[in-house]
Fold this protein.
Amino acid sequence: QKQQQQQQQQQQQQQQQQQQQQQQQQQQQQQQQQQQQHHLHQQTQQQQQQLLQQTQQQQSQHLQTQQQALLELSNIAAAGDAATLPQQPMDTSAPLVAPPTVVGSISVQLPGVIGNGVVPAEVPVPVSSVATGEPRPIPMDSIGLHPSQESLAEESRALASELTAMTETELMNYICPSAFDAGK
């Protein structure tokens, strides 16, 4: 009987050892799976970072092209002013860039000073009343433009509205046609 008991105990011990080995194998497999998952996770993170960098680069390029367009516009306007009226040093590019309603509100809000220096309170009109409704074009002489500059002002206004309506590719083609052709 003792021998039988000993044999049974040995068998149980062997079974336990086998179970332990199986558990160890399972743990190893789980670790491997976790490592693989971690590696995949790292890869996806790297891909996401690359995508982010690409989009940021594209955005910065887009901004640069817009700034270039604006710079060229202001250069054209400044050159036009200098060529037409050298004796008038007023910078007309600033009022042209501002929307008409804003210019209107500024001109209305200049209060008239009466004899002894008292400013009447009812002269300034609130901006809201000027800005609401249809924006009326202001006659060019009220801004201080010389009649010979009116056509130039109209051109720059039209050009600005055209540029804002353009798509990105059209803008690129407008700014630098040779680069656009080379990119095809």
